[in-house]
Amino acid sequence: MKILVKGVGLTKFGELWDKSLFDLSLQAATEAIQDANLSAKNIEAVFVANMIHGKLANQDLLGAAIASLFNIKGASFRVEGACASGGLAVHLAIQSLLAGTYKNVLVVGAEKMTDVTISEITSALMGAGSEAERKAGLTFPGLYALMAKTHMQKFGTTRNHLAAVSVKNHYHASLNEKAQFPFEITEEKALNSPEICMPFTLFDASPITDGAGAVILSSENTPRRRALTPSRWTAGDVYITGSAVATDTVGLAERESLVEIPATKQAAKMAVKQAGIEIADIDIAEVHDCFTIAEILAMEDLGFCEKGEGGKFIVQGTTKLGGRLPINTSGGLKACGHPVAATGLKQIIEITQQLRGSAGKRQVKDAKIGLTHNVGGSGATVVVHVLQT
Amino acid sequence: MKILVKGVGLTKFGELWDKSLFDLSLQAATEAIQDANLSAKNIEAVFVANMIHGKLANQDLLGAAIASLFNIKGASFRVEGACASGGLAVHLAIQSLLAGTYKNVLVVGAEKMTDVTISEITSALMGAGSEAERKAGLTFPGLYALMAKTHMQKFGTTRNHLAAVSVKNHYHASLNEKAQFPFEITEEKALNSPEICMPFTLFDASPITDGAGAVILSSENTPRRRALTPSRWTAGDVYITGSAVATDTVGLAERESLVEIPATKQAAKMAVKQAGIEIADIDIAEVHDCFTIAEILAMEDLGFCEKGEGGKFIVQGTTKLGGRLPINTSGGLKACGHPVAATGLKQIIEITQQLRGSAGKRQVKDAKIGLTHNVGGSGATVVVHVLQT
């Protein structure tokens, strides 16, 4: 598999009360189309990732609605898999390119989450949980807290380990102008912030965010015309070389273990195999840190460290910018923000910019192979992509 | 393109108050898996088409939820494009097979619409409209009534022409045990039923319906083992040979004409070209008759008759069972019922059964080439498939 990431576009993430879902989609997609040096009339299909706009704004049919912003008359789709919607849309767009049906497609992930009350958005997000667990009163902080508590009891993971994820990702976000929270925090601040659901305090949780990301994917292996945007394009072209999806039960109660996400293991194994690499070859990754424990689980389940060692692995500094394997240089879901369906796109965009050498103040040196890891629900759907330059 | 329809399964359509969305999905998918002579463990990906369950039941992530009913750990997706969701899911499933990523995939379309009040479901369905037209107070009966009124003024189409669609489709439904309304009606009854939105009376509109349909699609060109279900399998294997999607504006106000659906023309042209046939080669079709005028527009825009002649074409009897080109032998959306995202699946299933020779009392003789036409919104997204035996 060799799918060219021909163009990328990303809005600022945050509480963007003056922008609609369509404003954000238009901005990200226009930037991606320009970055690809394409005209909208060359785009044959539009894949829109969105979880929540039907519920909150009663607007469905977003594939056609967003395609129409560009007068695109080709195919259009909306893809949903809760917080994995973005990754799933990229995976399906790739299938249509591999099939030879389309040559250039636009994938947009967009979410508008801050225009409603906290109770409305909390309720809407629980659509990604199982009916039984939702009705039993579990929320996502509660579900991930169960995993964190179990991991702490079984492996000796501590609240300091959890805080280290947050401190690292806030440091990365402080170097990213698109981040919702572009500032550093101390371990003390993380540990002493208000309790959300023990063992989590405020800084263990990713926020509610507006934002959009867009990519142009192409089956054409001809490089972009580099002269047009030299400042943003200093390394070689970036290709997606692996794309895999795995599924598990929606409810945690039906799983065998609370300390692993089997779908992460399965998707990673398949994507890495497709790319013809080993997991040890990965130079950089964006992983799904919806809660700090999720990044620890991702380190273990992706195979970056042994099971149970994720907390210690992170405090060693290996995954901080400057370390051997920088993780979530964008700031992650925690500090860059988490506009649900846009997250999968932002991950692809961050890795693309890093491999292009256009990541500015947070540039990782000599990164050649990157990975993205996007999770829906509490591990019901996982999408892993491998990108190479 | 040659994609085998390896198995099909369909629930009864109707007001199924004792069945949940998952009950219906399980039933249709189990039947399709058995019909394909497969085990669930051979299914590598599950595509779920659904429009409305997130809004009405706050359940998203339906790809994983329905895959988990069968303990399927492969890929899972939800695809949405309002009333075209089913056709879009089939199109994307086909892409993944053509790409060579998966060999056997399950596509489920399911909708549970009758458990809420009429005001709730009417509001939820307007998510398929444009924000401006929704806020202006337009409903789908209103949008299609605008098209009908214009067609009547421009081409002399009459209420009798509209009623003929309903009478024919009710006749077909009277031969279909899965239909929501398996009874005949007279032209007089159609014309004198309560007014909905002039020129429409009750019998011009498709109903609110619960139901699910499922198909197993396969890139393997090996025929099914026919011995297992001889009674249901008397003709050859059925293949999808064309699959195309086209897009238009969501709002009617942005269109140039109220008497055509350009996306239907475009999708039909592409699908027929892919299949290597002419539109005149079609023996049978299931078209999207959400309102009677929609079937008239479909006849014209698919190229079965000239623009403006759709009404007269239908009253000639050509499209009635026994005629040269039977249309909507299932009973169509009008009389078989319209569980939104299940409709695209039901269309594929009906044509498959007809081409297999297993359509029972409504069997069309010697049908070799069939077409399905699935519309989202008021023509914003159209999916056309060509099936051949």
Automatic annotation (TrEMBL), chains A, B:
Superkingdom of this protein's organism: Bacteria
Domain Thiolase N-terminal: 11-185
Gene3D superfamilies: 3.40.47.10
Pfam families reported in the protein's UniProt record: Thiolase_C_1, Thiolase_N
Domain Thiolase C-terminal: 245-388
An MF annotation (GO) of this entry: acyltransferase activity, transferring groups other than amino-acyl groups
Annotated NCBIfam families: PRK06064.1
Protein name per the record: Acetyl-CoA acetyltransferase
Highest classification ranks of the organism: Bacteria, Candidatus Daviesiibacteriota
